Amino acid sequence: MFAEAKNSCALREEIFGPVAAVVRARDYDEALALANDTGVWPIVGICTTSLSTRRTFKRHAQAGL
Fold first, then answer.
1. What phi and psi, each to the nearest 5 degrees, are found at residue 33?
2. How many H helices and E strands in the chain?
3. Which of 3, 8, 34, 35 would bridge with 44, disulfide CB 3.0–4.6 Å?
4. Angstrom distance (rounded) from CA 57 to CA 28
5. How many CB atoms lie within 10 A of CB 43?
6. What is the DSSP letter of 60?
């Protein structure tokens, strides 16, 4: 697990093995931008208590959830 991996190679390069990169975003827009800019990660997710935020993120993320 890579914690606070916002500028890490873990988000930009393919790594073989079970890997998770965890990034804290300032707000929804930054979270969506980070998710759509990863390039090599086929699955992204968001942790939120808001069901509407989760649904909106799912619609706009260019990766699987």
1. -65, -45
2. 2, 2
3. 35
4. 8
5. 11
6. H
Structure tokens at 25: 């975003």
> How close are the terminal C-alpha atoms of the chain, in Å?
18
Structure tokens, 2: 């890579």
pLDDT digits (tens, 9 = 90+) for 4-55: 555 556 566 677 777 777 778 899 999 888 888 766 666 788 888 999 999 9
Q: What is the DSSP string of 25-52?
A: -SSHHHHHHHHHT-SS-SB-----S-HH
Q: 11 in helix, strand or coil?
A: helix
Q: What pLDDT, on a 0 to 100 scale, did the predictor assign at position 6?
A: 58
Q: What pLDDT is attached to residue 52?
A: 94
